[in-house]
Amino acid sequence: MMNQDAGNPIWQDLSSDWLNWADRLAPQADKINRHLIDALELHGMADRVAQRCHNGLCVLDLASGVGEPAFGLAALLSSAFSDMPESAKGKPFPSGRVIASDIAPSMCAGLAGRAARAEIANLDVVAANMQSLPFADAMFHGVSCRFGIMFCQNPDQALRETRRVLAPGGRAAFMVWGPMAENPLFGAMDAIFKQVLGTGFEAAGLDLFGFSSAENSVARLINAGFDDVSLVTHTPCGRIPAAAPFWRPQMQMLFGAALRNATSGQGREIDDLMRASLSQHIEDTYFRVPMCFHVLSGRREMAV
Ligand SMILES: C[S@@+](CC[C@H](N)C(=O)[O-])C[C@H]1O[C@@H](n2cnc3c(N)ncnc32)[C@H](O)[C@@H]1O
Q: Which helix (H) or strand (E) holds 184?
């Protein structure tokens, strides 16, 4: 199913960069995705659903890009896979299907191609703007969204839409970036792209930090009608050999179009400045660069 609204053209332009890195970044993505998937509390939902229907759970992933966390969710909901999150140890993960969605047709096409190559049988792809979802009320037992809600033109409308398509008792979970000051990789990228190419996140039309305030984000979920709202902040710190240009994947996935138009000299200058800026985080020959994200979640109230 295709939706005519392709959204901000920047994502169309970046889909080749996202596809280029997707498989290599998947193991790292899995590590943080488990926080988002745990927040959906699918076990509780499965217990209730099992009493009424035998088709298993139906989970929607919004702004899936080329597959995160939709692939991980599909694996967990497939009886063919045995991985399970920490919280589910000792209890089989419920089975079901995932609908992966994104506003950018090229992201959806890339995602569908990856899913076909990986022979994922319980995942469908639907192009959709999360501000006006093409789904019936109460259709999903859970809704996930990883680093997507902040990029909508009207995130509050997208939150209300998310709640509308959730079944009573179902949870939505959003992974969102914490403040730029607590994400030095992004801080360096923003400053260096402004310096070398005259375009930072704002000029590129990328609002990464619209949900960085924990207090405001919780209030937005409550205003959209969610109950039992929670927010958990995570501050992992990688351990990457100091020789590795580890900033390149994120840099290309956010500024790929600008980099393609840059001269090779500008490309080298950006790399050198990124290394110099991030070297303050080198400890014992490893980059230890902290990052900060929140997992924000809320429930559609139970029917009375
Ligand atoms: C930072 S990427 C995140 C992709 C993926 N969830 C991940 O974490 O790898 C943001 C995605 O949001 C999508 N997006 C932006 N606005 C959207 C909207 N209104 N509805 C649906 N998707 C949207 C973009 O097309 C892009 O693929």
A: helix 184-197
C-alpha of residue 183 to centroid of ligand 1, in Å: 20
Exposure class string for 191-202: b at 16+ Cβ within 10 A, else e:
ebbeebbebbbe
Whole-prediction pTM? 0.94
* Nearest of 224, 203, 77, 86 to residue 149 by alpha carbon: 224
Tokens of 243: 């020789």
Q: Over the Cα atoms of the chain, what is R_g?
A: 19
Neighbouring-strand partners of residue 295:
175, 232
Residues with CB under 6 A from ligand 1: 7, 11, 62-65, 68, 102-104, 107, 129-131, 146-148, 151-152
The answer to whether residue 39 sits within a structural domain is yes
How many domains in the chain?
A: 2
Residue 304: inside a domain: no
Cβ 136 vs Cβ 165: under 8 Å:
yes
Neighbouring C-beta atoms of residue 204, cutoff 10 Å: 17
Q: What is the domain range of residue 151? A: 9-177+210-237+292-299
Residue range 21-35, pLDDT digits in tens: 999 999 999 999 999
DSSP state letter for 125: E
pLDDT of residue 44: 84
